[in-house]
Amino acid sequence: MVEIIYIISFLLFLIGILGTIFPILPGPLISYIGVILLYNYTDIELTQSILVYLGVSMVLVSIGDYLIQVIGVKKLGGGKNAIAGTIIGMIVGLFFPPVGMLLGAFVGAFLGAKKDTNNEGEALKIALGAFLGFIVGTVLKLIYCVYIFYYIIKVL
Length: 156
Description:
mainly alpha; 6 helices
């Protein structure tokens, strides 16, 4: 039975890593579920503090993934409409995976910025902030998932 838990956990770690690349899957959450399985059903040396640390990190990385896109828009000059467009685009994009999740914030930021500035070039620059935020968020999620995989391998 323990071997099956190890196999399932390692599959979850791999799916979690893939989930950072394919945004339809919540990669950090899937990887964390693998850790919880190992903690609860094996004798692997994991403390409650590590479990809490990884859980809090997962929540922060997941929230940060979305906030970083808004910050990117704001840093490149986006106003209220661009920020609102980014948020709306992220939400609408969730219903059209994976393309919507990749482009939702970008399109929303572009439309909102165009309303703010009435200048396509400026709106495109601001929307690029959403896309750059998406890239940074993806890298953070990837680092988290790879770290979990590395940590568990190290503990074994």
